[in-house]
Amino acid sequence: MDRFTLTVLCFSTFYCSQGTQGYEVDDKIVGGTEAVPNSVKFMRNVVTSGHCCQTVTPEEIQIVAGEHSLSEVSGNEQVCPVRELLLHEKYNAFDFENDICLLVLDKNIVYNDLVNRASIATDDSSLKLTASVYGWGATSNEAMANSEVLMKVDVPILKNEDCAQSYGNGVIHDFMLCAGADGKDSCKRDTGSPLVCQNAVDEQVLCGTASFGYDCGQPGFPGVYMRISSFSEWINENIQ
Question: What is the reported pTM?
């Protein structure tokens, strides 16, 4: 039986501000458009970035499934408290090694036409080379406020060796995935956001979670994500 999970955008309920080696945690959707409402699907266990779980307790977090607009209540939202935070036991705050965390919800999310489960990528070899990243962060380097609606931008997935040429030696690891283009990126306050890929049969799978980057949409500096396929075994072992 396939196991499924969802990803959470950590942007306002708890703020993630830790950087690594002079780089910034991802903050904004840059170069994107408003996402189709409820086009990101959810279920009970939640994947996010590890540094989002460092300084908070479960009581400080709530998951809202079916959310689209932060300023309007549609009636589709499902608010779920978090029972437990499972930070990867080998997470390293200095270089964002194993920057992943699993949230265990205190109650089940009810599936419906707008809320559903998302599978996790277990093998990247069949994934298409364009992915989508979602978030409520600011939409440009100059913008001070977050977006009121969920934003989406399509970004190309890059080879790690090309990404490493920009970030330097020892920064990009095999368990990371780089995606982005000039003017199209995620940045701070999008940390933990889902990078959604399509597999060979056009199914949407969670292939990354936003981790860090250098500024937003800068030429030669794509966003850096945790490669979900590298953590699929860990996720499945800890799903409750």
Answer: 0.81
